[in-house]
Amino acid sequence: MTKNIADWFKYEVYYWRSGAAVVWSSILVYPSVAIYQFFAAFSLSPFKWLSGYIWSLLSLQTWFSAFLLALTILSTSLWNIKYASVRPKIFTQRWQFYYTSPADIPFKVTYYIAGGFSVWCLLNTFPGEYASLKYQVEGKWYLNERYLFMMLHGVFVAIMYCRKFYLDGGNYLKFPVTQEAKFLKVKAALFRLVWQSILTMYRNMKYYYLIYYIFAGGLCEWFSSSLNCSRSPIPVNSVYGMLDLSLLWQTLLSGVTVNFLWSLSSFIFKVYNTEPYEFPIESSFKDGSFRTLANAMDCSSDPLVKHLVFQDFCRLSKYLPDRRKVVFSLSQPGGHPHNWKTLSSQCLLSIESLSQAVSVFNTQLIISGSEHHGRRERFNRAFIKSVSANETRNTTETPLSYSSWTDYSNILSPTSSFVGNQSNTLTYRGGGPVTNGMNVSIITAPPPTVTFSERFKSYIRSRPLMMYFCGDIPDSKSCQLFSDSPQHMWAVEGISNLVSASFTEDSCGVVQQSLPDIIDTLLTLNEAIDKHFKVSTGISRHSNSGDGSLRFALRSAVKSSLYKIIDTFKEHITNNAIQVSMEQLRKLKMFLEYKE
Question: Which residues contact 270 (CB under 8 A, 6 or more apart)?
């Protein structure tokens, strides 16, 4: 039996939850196919419509095609298990929007194949016009371009879905604010997923029609020669073929169905794996001690475990008084608050690690801002002195040549020793120093060694278009810093809820002993976050590189947690019944006066 919380969670919880999500996604394929057939069999004659629908619904070929489609959805759903992440995907540079990692190629190829195969399964439920890739008329074989058009559209749907999955972070497990039953979540999301699939197909259909109209000629010729048949008398990539409303309707329906099934499987997977999991506070058996709440908080190898354990800790502090009673209890024999000490120390450790990371990031921002400002000032001073020296040297009043400006660019470079020199110095490029009534010193420092990487970076910076794609996206590093904010929010809210509840539930007074440390830790984090919002520029809730709202949610959670503690112990803090330092009291003043 494994003693590692990460391995135990993977095999005992994560795989079982993911397996249940995959099974339900496959089961829901059958009603989805039935609904697809109802709309695909549309006819102006109601009797013909309903009779054709019922006949196709009860046919063995429909059930077999739905079974194959369910297997296809199962194969694509397996990638959700591999790529799931509790951290949002954050792009730091613009070229990453268009980059495909070699590790993502199997994922995309699987979806491309599944897209075409899924449309083939849907077309097999109507074995008439779309039965084969070629058909025979009066003894002559023709290429079924309508069939080819829809099959290629399935691949196109897969390409656009993978693109959206990559840009929108489709693998991101975002934990909901309010918890409700899985069935209610899926039921509430069905209409939204259908509507989003319809809008997606509506936006993408025009691009697919345009691409097919331009490139389908050569592709159809290749298929015709390979299958030893002629092209259709009415090509789809003609004006008349593009105006075929029946083909448009069938293509739209198949694309919406495939996109909906993929979106639904991803949503069900997220619902299952963001469901709260209850960790035991203490274990009566030695073999199960590694699964306790405090030990799970110390898990650093699996971020999902850490998010779920802090989510459970926050739920415990808010809604479960029986479990809170266990946290406040004393060990027997000995009478020590082991549960409270281990849980509070792990929470404070998580909060302190974030405070240190934010403080270091703030310091780096301040230093980089000062260096940029100082470099700009040195550049301006050096440029003015260089122009003055040039005017003194050019007594014949000749215009500046191109080589002179080249010299100035070399002088004003950041590596030049001229930039940091405060004396009025000048070195003449063609010979010795110019002594035109000035104090001149010859620069004898050896030229700095420039590596290939530095020359390449300098070349990139000199090209505006390359700099646009290779430069850092504003606000991206800030989003990266707060990518684990849900975990820290639950830690902050959980510790503050327990502190507030201890006022009436902690009969032994185990919490009050550590209350000054808790207040100091929360004040430090609040000060670091406030400073980050001041020194950072361009912070927005809707960031282009990640989930920008996490920082604002964390900031609000820290302030509300401090207010919750202050409201509970305000009288004790003001009367010095709780020992806080003068520095902490100064920081608490705004909260005590409700002005923060």
Answer: 173, 174
Whole-angstrom distance, CA of residue 310 vs CA of residue 371: 40
Q: Token pair for residue 362?
A: 């703030």
**CA 281-283-286 angle, 5° bins:** 145
Three-state SS at 141 = strand
Both structure tokens of 116: 């075409």
CA distance 261 to 33: 10
Q: Which helix (H) or strand (E) holds 496?
A: helix 485-505
Task: Yes or no: say if 173 and 14 are a contact pair by the CB < 8 Å rule.
Answer: no
* Per-residue pLDDT reduced to its tens digit, 553-584: 999 999 999 999 999 888 888 887 787 788 88
Taking residues 489-515, what's their average pLDDT?
90
User: What token pair was written down for 562?
Assistant: 């401090």
| C-beta of residue 75 within 8 angstroms of C-beta of residue 110 | yes
Q: What is the DSSP string of 365-433?
A: HHHHHHHHHHHHHHHHHHHHHHHHHHHHH-TT-PPPPHHHHHHHHHHTSTT-TTTT--S-----SSSS-
Contact 293, 473 (CB under 8 A): no
- Long-range contacts of residues 223-229, Cβ cutoff 8 Å, at least 24 apart: 223/133, 223/143, 223/148, 224/143, 227/133, 227/134, 227/141, 227/143, 228/141, 229/134, 229/141, 229/142, 229/143
What is the distance, to the nearest Å, from the Cα of residue 450 to the centroid of all Cα atoms in its chain? 37
Radius of gyration of the chain (CA): 34
| CA 474 from centroid of its chain's CA atoms | 16
The answer to whether 286 and 273 are in contact (CB under 8 A) is no
Q: Which helix (H) or strand (E) is 411 found in, with range?
A: helix 402-411
Confirm if 500 and 564 have CB atoms less than 8 A apart: yes
Backbone angles phi, psi at 372, to 5 degrees: -65, -40
The DSSP letter of residue 291 is: G
> Using one digit for the tens of pLDDT, what is the confidence trace for 316-365?
999 999 999 999 888 777 778 888 999 999 999 999 999 999 999 988 88
On whether the CB atoms of residues 524 and 355 are closer than 8 A, the answer is: yes
